Amino acid sequence: RKARSPDEKMPMPAELSSPQCNPKMLLKKYLTEDVYNALRDKKTKSGFTLTDLIKSGLENLDSSNGVYAGDEESYSLYAKVLDPIIEEYHSPYKLKDGHTSDMNPEKVEAPDLDPEGRFIRSTRIRVARNLKGYNLTPNMSKEERLEIEKKVVGVLSSLTGDLAGTYYPLNGMDEQTRQQLVNDHFLFKKGDRFLESAGVNKEWPEGRGIFHNVNKTFLVWVNEEDQLRIISMEMGSDILSVFKRLCDAVNEIDKQLGFQHTHQHGYLSSCPTNLGTGMRASVHVKIPHAAEHPDFKKICDEYHIQPRGIHGEHSESTGADVGVFDISNRRRLGLSEVQCVQDMYNGVKKLLEIEKEAL
Ligand code: ADP
Ligand code: CIR
């Protein structure tokens, strides 16, 4: 067979022009024919190709983004397609501006939104982190995954006080315990099809697990979508208490493990939506009326918040939970951690005003 010349135009992946393809998928929007042809033969030093980068989107046509990075180099080598995706998701941030962190909980203005506990069930803040010198989860070998697990668990085991806890590997965990942790909102679910296509679920469950303190107010997911998801959560609406605990934990862990970070992208993550702060601050809040408001979506956009079902991304709230939503900040890059929490707070405050008016 004749070798193909580098100038020869290749047909675009047909999936992206299928009628089933989400017309708003950012990969569909920004993988133009020119970009595709400029990137199609590239490979990072660790062997991550354009095909690997876009596989999740092509196999899940309902994706909103459709891409996962395999290593730090993916963000520079595939910048032609990733930069516009990043800038649209985290709008109005421009990568040339650079990202700055601010983890000072005292700067958040957040008087308790629901002191009587009528609307807000629980509050959670998590950040995504990945260790310097390793591939991101879509391109990680089994050996790398086990090495990271060992390193991270070593550091977590040294934590003291409120952060002291135990690591529970997924491998060997009985099914009932695992399912209960998922149902109670503490543990990631298994078999996410977006992550499956991205190669993140390889050799499941080896090398994955959860660390938590006795009260399950401080938790760390190991080797799920990112190497670490550091989580602070509690029942009720005390956002400042949750944020303070998170800041303490992240500072402690950061001292002992170096995280992948660049000036333009902030903390690196496998999914471009999690770049920057890596932070998602959320409440589970009962807002059946506000959610039916004709401008609900518009208000969410205006306040930079994102609604999810209460069993996490791509879930719907059912049964006794109808009307309860997970409301979180949507942008994570180009604004500080303080501002992420403030975005969530301001948005929830607005939704609660609408809810109370309708009661
Ligand atoms: P992530 O927040 O890590 O991106 P998900 O949206 O999948 O991922 O949520 C992970 C888990 O965290 C789910 O079980 C979800 O119900 C739980 N969760 C998220 N926010 C809250 C909250 N405010 N209170 C209780 N559980 C929460
Ligand atoms: C998608 O593209 O829809 C999935 N890969 C998940 C994207 C991350 N989540 C999000 O934007 N809320």
Care to describe what's here?
The chain has 359 residues and is an alpha+beta fold. It has helices spanning 26-30, 33-39, 50-59, 74-77, 79-89, 142-157, 175-183, 193-198, 239-256, 288-292, 296-302, 337-358, and strands at 120-129, 165-169, 209-213, 218-222, 228-235, 261-262, 266-267, 279-286, 305-308, 324-329. The radius of gyration is 21 Å and the shape is globular. It starts with 25 loop residues before the first helix and ends with a helix. The protein binds adenosine-5'-diphosphate and citrulline.
Task: Please give a quick description of this structure.
The protein has 359 residues and is α+β, with helices and mostly antiparallel strands.
Give the topology:
Layout: H1 26-30, H2 33-39, H3 50-59, H4 74-77, H5 79-89, E1 120-129, H6 142-157, E2 165-169, H7 175-183, H8 193-198, E3 209-213, E4 218-222, E5 228-235, H9 239-256, E6 261-262, E7 266-267, E8 279-286, H10 288-292, H11 296-302, E9 305-308, E10 324-329, H12 337-358
Antiparallel strand pairs: 1-5, 1-8, 2-3, 3-4, 4-5, 6-7, 8-10, 9-10
Mean pLDDT: 96
Give the bound compounds.
adenosine-5'-diphosphate, citrulline
Low-confidence stretches: none
| Main β-sheet, spatial strand arrangement | 2-3-4-5-1-8-10-9
What is the helical fraction, as a range of percent? 25-40%
Question: In what range is the share of β-strand residues?
Answer: 15-25%
Could you say which structural class the secondary elements and strand pairing correspond to? alpha+beta
Rg over C-alpha atoms, rounded to the nearest angstrom: 21 Å
State the helix count.
12
Straight-line distance between termini: 71 Å
Number of strand elements: 10
Globally, the shape reads globular
Biggest sheet details: 8 strands, antiparallel
Which H/E pattern describes the elements?
Answer: HHHHHEHEHHEEEHEEEHHEEH
